[in-house]
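User: Hey, quick favor. My workstation is busy. Could you predict this chain's structure for me?
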Amino acid sequence: MNSIKKVILWQFIAVLGLNLAYALVISDRFSYMGFTYTFNFPKLLIGTVILILMLLLNYFIKDKFIFAVWNIMFTYLFAGEVIYYQYSENSSIVQLLTISITLICLILVSRSKKVFTDNKKINRVDRILTPLSLILISPFIILYYKYIDLKNLLLIDVYQTRALFRNISIPLTGYIYAPLVRIILPVLIVRNIEYRKWLKVTLFFSMIVYVYLCGALKSVFIGLFALLLFYKGNYTQKVVNFLKSISFLSFFGIALEAILGNVFLLDSFIRRVFFVPPFLNNIYIDHFTGNHTYLSHSPLGLGLVEDKIGGSLSMYVGEVVMGLEGLNANVGVFTEGYVSFGIPGSIFFSVLICGVFLFIKMIKISPKYFGIVFVYIYYLNTAFLSTLLLTHGLFFFLVFSALFLREGNDNKEFNSSLKTS
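Assistant: No problem, here it is.
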């Protein structure tokens, strides 16, 4: 079985698992939260045809890196939206069109043969990144050491710690956080695993744990876990491993609920990741249709349009639109595009994100660091553009990857792998 057929097979299995998880469990157990199930054959047929036709576009992708990005975005961003559209009344098709445009645009990106001609990268990476990591962690040690609660390692008192750090945290550590724990330290850990320098691996891992204790945010570990998950194998194998993980979580989660009534897996890893974003996207689209913000909610709007919301857009939707006090209804850049300018905004933001992946493709990032790319694919559905670029460190990652993570491989290996098992 060649690589594309193998990936498409596992896509079918993963999407089937997500379908069953939503229809059999999530729509029932979480109906009180707004997740509903209505059988509508025309919508089911439309959704199925769209999924199949989009999957066949795999045969038009001509770059190994974009092949991996495309398939993960298909499962994570597109499949969840299609399934939610199939089974929910009054669901909007806007987000399906937006992500479809993105996936088609990525195919065009994959056909670009442009690369940065200077393929040199900075050598002696450890000698630069190790002291840099020590410098960046210093403010966390100096400012927060007396607030550390070791019980947070056992997930005890984490909400009290989060509340405390919301009051004492300063902007400096907020901007340092993402580059340090999602990029620099995970890269140092993997590099030292390669060289079997276990003392350094322990040191850098301990630094990540310490930053976790400075606020008890479990997302601190996402960069490390993703990097280790996607470290080994070629791009096809990385995608297959991802799809196998989703399939396992879906089918085992369904079995666990049927036998023990336990919905932990389906709630934590399936509902929240794949179906909460479509649910929130529809609320945003319904509310802001004909009532666009023109980026007045964002620093990127430069204050050119008066901000009628007067605060956080996600908090406004959570508390005012949804009526749930304290709810921060986070959505991603594609929804922000629509909220800002309607369909033209969705298209513009889609092209912008494709431009980011074109840049990464052109610098030929080493495949062993694909886990970091995955982290930013994940944040596409949970963060606005300004937050993604600055707070989550996407801009830093683009500069960092150009300096430290490049590898000058061509696509001959990928193209030949399509014909082999």
